[in-house]
Description:
Layout: H1 16-21, E1 39-41, H2 53-59, H3 63-66, E2 72-74, E3 79-83, E4 86-92, E5 100-109, E6 120-131, E7 135-140, E8 145-148, H4 153-160, E9 165-174, E10 180-184, H5 186-190, H6 200-206, E11 208-211, E12 217-223, E13 227-238, H7 246-249, E14 251-262, E15 281-287, E16 295-300, H8 312-316, E17 327-331, H9 340-348, H10 351-356, E18 363-367, E19 383-388, E20 395-396, E21 400-401, E22 408-410, E23 412-416, H11 419-431, H12 445-463, H13 484-490, H14 523-533, H15 542-559, H16 585-599, H17 603-607, H18 615-636, E24 642-644, E25 656-658, H19 661-676, H20 685-691, H21 699-711, H22 714-727, H23 734-745, H24 757-775, H25 793-823, H26 827-844
Helix pairs in contact: 9-12, 11-18, 16-18, 18-21, 19-23, 21-24, 22-25, 24-25, 24-26, 25-26
Amino acid sequence: MINNMNNKARLFSLAIATLLLSAGLHSCALFKAKKSKKKAAASISATAVKPKADSLKNTLKPYKEVITAKAVTQNGLMTVHKLAEKYFFEIPKKLLKKEILVVTRLSGSTPGAGNFGGEEVGRRMIYWEQGPDNKLFLRVAALVSVADSTDMISKAVSNSNINPITAAFPIRALGKDSASLVIDVTDFLLSENLLMAFDPESKKSYGLAAQATDRSYIASVKTFPINTEIKTMRTYNSIAGPLPATSEAGAVTLEMNSSFILLPENPMRKRYYDPRVGYFASGYYKFSDDQQAVKTEGFVHRWRLEVKDEDQEKFRRGELVEPKKQIVYYIDPATPKKWRPFLIAGINDWQKAFEQAGFKNAIVGKEWPENDSTMSLDDARFSVIRYFASPKANAYGPNVADPRTGEILESHIGWYHNVMTLVHNWYMVQCAAVDPRARKNKFDDELMGQLIRFVSSHEVGHTLGLRHNMGASSTVPVEKLRDKAWVEAHGHTPSIMDYARFNYVAQPEDGITEKGLFPRINDYDKWAIQWGYRPILDTRDAEAERKILNVITKDSLANNKRLWFGGEGKDYDPRSQSEDLGDDAIKASLYGIKNLKRIVPNLINWTREDGESYTQLKTMYKEVVGQLDRYAFHVMKNMGGVMTTEKTYDQAGAVYQPVSLAKQKEAIKFFNEQIFKTPTWLLDKQILNKIDPGYSFNEVQKLQQGIVGAVTSQSRLYRMIVNQRDYGKGAYSPAEWLNDLKKGIFTELPTGASADEYRRALQKMYVGSIITMYNKRFALQGSTDNILASVTPTDVLLYSNVKALAFAHLKDLRKEIGAGIGRTADRDTKIHLEYLKQMLDKIVNESPIPGLNY
Length: 854
């Protein structure tokens, strides 16, 4: 997705352990044993008792009496018959025991309901199985364990993993030549089953009660050669929950689409997951007789790109070859024509990455052939950028992968019309200071087209298997972002999968053009595609490939830091952040602020449109404040920060390393000078008197409040205590850190200077935040401060030091405020300080022991 990380993350967050244990979303199909050397799959191990065909035929109605001449029939993976309001599936017997992936997504909702179209609700592997008593079973292959069939433990795996029967259907008739089975699926398609609807926990999180059957219905069923698509409208009564639309209607109507996709008969070879390269992945547990511990086996998601037999020698010689099957993305015919070439260009831009992997013409974007009645947008054989007429400002790029091997089978990118608003606002607030084209409400088509192209490339990258690489931009020296020749040649981030947006560091005098302002498919992306897609010929299996890839990865990372995968926003690593730039967040942010100061005085003129209200001015002013807020939080991550670099045993150096003392002191200086010292450049009266009635905190005060709360959080102080414990004098002393912060927020105390309303409000925020730090209870399990999922007795003792430090700081602050009262001659400042002292008297004069809730 291209929206902020705070939005619901639809893409599968990859911690392999989570992937493996979340069988509901990543149900792993397992290989069937055909020969002794194949994998013995526990997923299709149970054998039902099959009645003889003749006896079954004698007990059922004739086909013509069940599927009459009035039936509307579609042929495909499962033949679909519709009779009045009834739906029948005709299941070919050759389809029995074949693995089918069922993916259910939200495709539409009540306006304002808060969910995202395209969000995945569930993903499970199923298969049909003929059972006794004239029944057809639908089993869920929800297991995550495999063993080689030659190992004795394979019997234990099989015995321990019987796949559940999720539904049983009476067989209504036999098809022609008794080669198929007819069942009535009407009630099942609309029921609240786990394949096609919410599970109980998800319903609870959305604030949904029971499904209202009188307001729910089957919207359509379509079938194609390798997939059957079922669209249902489901109305849920609502309970207290997060969906704002429920408060008025008392219900939420959701459109849900379930895709039944046949998995390949010949599974693709897996490529094992490596945390040093950013791919989505699936996985399972692997058992063998030789183990002393169960092995976790993860493998990446990627399309099947294979060298043609006749081209293998060319490929070995290093010549580019065409793959057996090209990756093709079509453009939804609902897309406005003027934007189609830019979407296609965003797809085709990936070709240079596949050339590094050894393929030419590996990927292409095409217009949808609107006059071809044999093609459907719902057919899983075609991947499409779907265009939605929606006010939502977003886009998303999912991939549907074979859970047995990671092979990507298809992808439907979701593209919302209003994504143009998002990129417009980003570009204006980040680049209007250096690019005159960004200084208006409606961009020229060429500029908007190039912005669309960049988003298209990013989303296509997800559908190729690539995760966000939020750390890519941190490998670029900040000063290089101002070097016209360098940045136009190399780009401001090595990865289009970064949330680097645009080059906000560039200054007007640098003369940098679009080539140095826009992200592009770059070094990391090409290398990642090479790592995931280049066939390693003449290798025996995936394990042999893994060993070769480990050497390649280790050497590549040692020789080129631009290939580093920085994850999707590592918790405490300041290098891995959304929407930041460069190797120094403080320096980059200071450059960004310079540009914001150039933008604010021009906002009225740049957003002006006669006859319109000041809505756009208000929007862009908030965007400017929001950009400053981002800069502050980029710097914030240095405070108590820990850098994490994934490594294997054969790589030198530490995996974890704290942020240096000097850098953390720089961060406090930044806050004191750029945030806590009132940013008066944002308080433009000519803007504020048009957008802010002044009834309460304005945008600047809200920003300060958020930063004060974040910089003085319990969890941050706790991490700094831990860093001091582990690294001694090289770490920032928590007491020193609080004192440095206090000096910037209470600069008036030593001199008796007056404090204006902004400063007084800021000081109240700070005192309140430290009191909260002192009073807040430490949760031993599932800490709300996101410190640790579980804690040790040592952690409890360390965390008690947070409260002790907070108490000591409050005592010192009370003393200094008391002295400051006598120094100031300003009445408002004196009243303010007396109020703060009264607050602190109450805390300090009480015995501290009762407050230590740990």
